[in-house]
Amino acid sequence: MDLKDLFLNYQKHESQNVTFLGRVRSHRQGKAVSFLVLNDGTSLNDVQVVYKSEVEGFDKIKDARVSSIVEVYGEVIVTPRKPQPFEIQAKKLVLLDQAVEEYPLQKKEHSPEFLREIAHLRARTKTFQSIFRLRSSLAYAIHKFFQEQNYVYVNAPIITGNDAEGAGEAFVVTTREDGNYEEDFFGKKASLSVSGQLHGESYAQAFNKIYTFGPTFRAEDSNTSRHAAEFWMIEPEIAFIDLQKNLEIIESMVKFVINYVMENNLDELKFCEKNLEFGLIEKLTKVRDAKFQVCTYEEVINTLKIAVDEGHVFENNDIKFGTDLGSEHEKYICEVVYKGPTFIINYPKDIKAFYMKQNDDNKTVAASDLIVPGIGELVGGSQREDDFEKLIRRCKDMGVNIEELDWYNNLRKYGYYKSAGFGLGFERLVMYITGASNIRDVISFPRTPNNLLF
Amino acid sequence: MDLKDLFLNYQKHESQNVTFLGRVRSHRQGKAVSFLVLNDGTSLNDVQVVYKSEVEGFDKIKDARVSSIVEVYGEVIVTPRKPQPFEIQAKKLVLLDQAVEEYPLQKKEHSPEFLREIAHLRARTKTFQSIFRLRSSLAYAIHKFFQEQNYVYVNAPIITGNDAEGAGEAFVVTTREDGNYEEDFFGKKASLSVSGQLHGESYAQAFNKIYTFGPTFRAEDSNTSRHAAEFWMIEPEIAFIDLQKNLEIIESMVKFVINYVMENNLDELKFCEKNLEFGLIEKLTKVRDAKFQVCTYEEVINTLKIAVDEGHVFENNDIKFGTDLGSEHEKYICEVVYKGPTFIINYPKDIKAFYMKQNDDNKTVAASDLIVPGIGELVGGSQREDDFEKLIRRCKDMGVNIEELDWYNNLRKYGYYKSAGFGLGFERLVMYITGASNIRDVISFPRTPNNLLF
């Protein structure tokens, strides 16, 4: 039986015999009784198995090393006065496979850096059990949120001939070593996608509501705790809606996924709270229950100016219309000023992408960033430019290759009435919800500059 | 309101006024009354809007072209004697955006080849509405099947330094044009993954039950209706189980996803049946309700030999132990002999991968292919070799780079007791369930040799 089921139903099995397999997490031998702590991966909880020298299989089991696989046959003893709710009094133990002595994950604490070097093993630790089970649940919660509302899941292409958005930061995909792309597999230069948004937008014109959820790539030479060369993005797009409705969808999605893991993964969240971020569950509860605030970029600038005038010191104190807000500014706004999740809307057009809808003031676009306490930007979204001429002008002003994107721009000619969407970096969400502070620790096998293990 | 909701609830809205937006699919003007057929993408069903010259907005709406966006305000008239269950008697019509005359998707029939060239628009046709909504539902059904059984969803890496499986067929990922990989982004040669299985296996040792679901790539120069350079795979892996249990999981997964779309997407399936594959729903019903058969490769060889002796002609008539079964053989076995889904197990080791568990007969491995009527192989799986020495010997025999894979092979040293899993090509599943005969028609933006549009 799975340990997950045993932990759910141990009371039903009180004084009964059960059978299960598990990996040895620790093994302590005493004079009278010995203790095996086992886990089978289905639950964050370990089970303690108590045995004496009379147990069947003693001769072999007494030498079981950490990480060995053991089959247990024994009685469930409910232990209301001990930290664990029950233990197993072994009747028979089979050492199914003995691990070598040099198993790299012994009981002692390991540094995150060391664990990254054994990424194929680190998911066996409780920290990574928690992180990667939460990652899995979050992925499912996202699918569930959109599927239950009739969104169509679109697999945007990973290999793209469309370099427009990735200018300079896209990996090339090739079968050659000489850069002769005309003779290459696709007969032209191919790159790894940096975003599925533009392809997704064309599908929103067909299905009304779509979302992508797939890997994206950036060949950016940044060695920070928040950048990876390979990461997953969720990019929903909804036809016939404006920026305001887009904010409502973002808000309900964020609350839905938080609520989902609070209902389904409380053990993992508690472990993360204890080991990764103090106050994690209270933080998530607040976000789930908050009414997200909305303010304009211009209001933010004014607020920040006042803060500077009153003596607050930012690393970048040069606050004016046009300033690209840094994480320090975003955190000040949502942590100090609004004390909760906040949408900043209507950014200056010059610091945002070509496809965002120009507002009537001729200087801002209908863009929104959702900023949250503790991490800053979590979701970026916008209403899209629906006017073909304006869109082309923005492409030209910003040096976007019009020929490459004619298929995208032309969507505006074929019947187009509003469209809006957003992008959520999945790893950023996982970091926010687990409290992990390094993106390398929420990706199974992370890829960063000069780092390609496994 | 969404047209999907309107179709579900039109009776509740009888004789009431409703408002919705839609794209013009056709527009027919008569002397007394005119007809707009609209769709908003949320439903496969079109709604017919009837209007007279007195309708508010007539002057503009009378010129609405195909693909324009229209806002409708009108009364729901239930029409039990007409093909459609209801129509809308318009009170007010607003032409929100007029499409150009040169819209490529006019009402006439288009060839699949032409539609592939306008992949950004083809999802607006009913055929591709059906295919891509089914694709989306199937993806969700797969997540649902595994998540509800406590599997952990693992995002195996896409960029890999691990060339072992893809020998010669992997795309290179680079930021250079000279093949100097030591100076490249990762400091070594990087490829696009051809399979997430090996990485997934290491996670099954941590979580017991995992599945991957992500894109994989093959730089194979085949221009067939069943090959694409970019496709999605589902690769579950379960620790502590053998081949037999693996077959049970495959069988229940296939039945679950078929049942899911039959319950949730019957409209789309009916459309596919009418337009893509005669008898589709009966085919799927039979698979859902069948008991999958199991036979050994050796039994298959004997059966095929007898068929040849009795005069059956295969393209490859040279049937002996060691023959790599072709699609023609697989179809004969499941369509003529077993008349239903059939697992073929215990293949000769020389035609299967290095990681499959060697059987005691020393000539076969614990592999299984699920073959189904109409398409042949749908799922391939195996129990993995758990003996470190045997695994290394197979690597050497088959020319697999042991150094590159030491992390994978070493899993056998760290406590390892049985593991099995399988691979399901997602596009093959979508083709099977929609009846689409070309893989290019079940991928939003397909990638094949010399073909990289969008």
TrEMBL record, chains A, B:
InterPro entries: Aa-tRNA-synt_II, aa-tRNA-synth_II, aa-tRNA-synth_II/BPL/LPL, Asn-tRNA-ligase, Asp/Asn-tRNA-synth_IIb, NA-bd_OB-fold, NA-bd_OB_tRNA
Enzyme class: ligase
SUPFAM superfamilies documented for this protein: Class II aaRS and biotin synthetases, Nucleic acid-binding proteins
Main subcellular localisation: cytoplasm
The reaction(s) this protein catalyses: tRNA(Asn) + L-asparagine + ATP = L-asparaginyl-tRNA(Asn) + AMP + diphosphate + H(+)
CDD domains listed in its UniProt record: AsxRS_core, EcAsnRS_like_N
A GO term for molecular function: asparagine-tRNA ligase activity
Gene Ontology terms: biological process: asparaginyl-tRNA aminoacylation
E.C. numbers: 6.1.1.22
Gene3D superfamilies reported for this sequence: Bira Bifunctional Protein, Domain 2 (3.30.930.10), Nucleic acid-binding proteins (2.40.50.140)
Protein localization: Cytoplasm
Gene Ontology cellular component list: cytoplasm
Pfam families: tRNA-synt_2, tRNA_anti-codon
Keywords noted in UniProt: Aminoacyl-tRNA synthetase, ATP-binding, Cytoplasm, Ligase, Nucleotide-binding, Protein biosynthesis
All copies of domain Aminoacyl-transfer RNA synthetases class-II family profile, residue ranges: 132-449
Family as reported in the entry's similarity comment: Belongs to the class-II aminoacyl-tRNA synthetase family.
Assembly and interaction partners: Homodimer.
Protein's recorded name: Asparagine--tRNA ligase
Phylogenetic lineage: Bacteria, Bacillati, Mycoplasmatota, Mollicutes, Entomoplasmatales
